[in-house]
Design goal:
five-stranded antiparallel β-sheet, 5 helices, alpha+beta, Jelly Rolls, extended, 27% strand, 2 domains
Length: 308
């Protein structure tokens, strides 16, 4: 831990010094304010996927911000299949991107964001659900081939549920190019330590002038530590579960033996033995829960906060 303190200080200094401008949104008309030239129900820059003007359209009454939002809903006829809207976003090869959107859902469906990288399967799928407008954030890595795209398709999932509808607004796609972005994604729990480490290593591979390297190294050191702690916590949890299961098995055998002695023991002794077994089970459950909370508690570094 002593070796980590200077690294943490450097990380804080880097956070304070980082004043990089945010990357531009790569999505065309992500706020759905503009309409297509020949179809006022279709937002400019977007195309329908198996949908119609009745199932995927701009709705001025649903806006989260601005003057309109996008609504995509299922057909009443289940045989109609998926109803979606899509856009292909240009991207650099092997680059991590942050995707954020405001979404809401209605009926027995979730919102599905399907991302096809470089025009090839398999797709990356993300889901969201909220009765009211809520912001959702995801991270995806583009394909290795140059000249590729991230094809974003939004649709209700699953199809075939009449009345199922999703609302979308303010869709933003930006490359992850700064440690400040990574810090924010870690803070809002979009990134796990392993993925954060991959992104930071990719950032560190860039020319020095493009990044505050000390800041990135400090953050990478922290995420590696968190990943190691997570593995240790999982190992401890497995050991606790295994020991608990073994004791439960012994108690089961004891209860079985007690049943075998039924009629051979005085009633009061048999009842006392059953109470003792029940108390042992309760004590075991309480001890396991208490030990688990202490042994698998989040490490203090998991609560790092960056208010840049």
């Amino acid at each position: 831990m002593d070796k980590l303190i200077p690294t943490i200080v450097l990380f804080l200094a880097g956070c304070l010094a980082n004043g990089a401008e945010p990357a531009p949104n790569l999505v065309k008309n992500g706020d759905f304010e503009e309409t297509a030239p020949n179809d006022p129900t279709l937002p400019a820059g977007w195309s329908r996927r198996q949908s119609t003007s009745k199932t995927a359209y701009r709705d001025p009454t649903q806006a989260q911000s601005g003057k309109a939002a996008l609504v995509v809903k299922n057909q009443d006829d289940a045989s109609a299949g998926w109803q979606g809207i899509q856009q292909a976003v240009p991207c650099a090869p092997s680059t991590y991107y942050q995707i954020s959107l405001w979404g809401k859902t209605q009926g027995e469906v979730k919102g599905q964001l399907q991302i096809i990288r470089g025009g090839k399967a398999p797709a990356a799928n993300f889901f969201f659900s909220s009765a009211n407008w809520r912001k959702f954030t995801y991270v995806v890595c583009s394909a290795a081939e140059p000249g590729g795209t991230l094809q974003l398709t939004f649709m209700p999932w699953p199809w075939g549920f009449a009345g199922g509808m999703i609302g979308l607004d303010d869709v933003v796609v930006t490359p992850i190019t700064t440690t400040a972005q990574v810090s924010e994604l870690i803070e809002n729990q979009t990134l796990d330590p392993a993925t954060a480490g991959k992104i930071l290593q990719a950032l560190l591979a860039r020319p020095p002038a493009e990044l505050d390297r000390e800041q990135a190294k400090a953050l990478l050191a922290r995420e590696k530590l968190k990943a190691e702690i997570t593995l240790q916590q999982k190992a401890v949890a497995f050991q606790i579960t295994s020991a608990s299961n073994e004791i439960e098995t012994l108690l089961d055998f004891a209860e079985f033996d007690l049943d075998e002695l039924k009629g051979k023991l005085p009633a009061d002794e048999a009842e006392r033995a059953r109470r003792q077994l029940s108390e042992l089970r309760q004590t075991l459950a309480a001890k396991v829960a208490d030990f688990s909370n202490k042994a698998i508690a989040p490490h203090p570094c998991n609560f790092w906060r960056y208010d840049g």
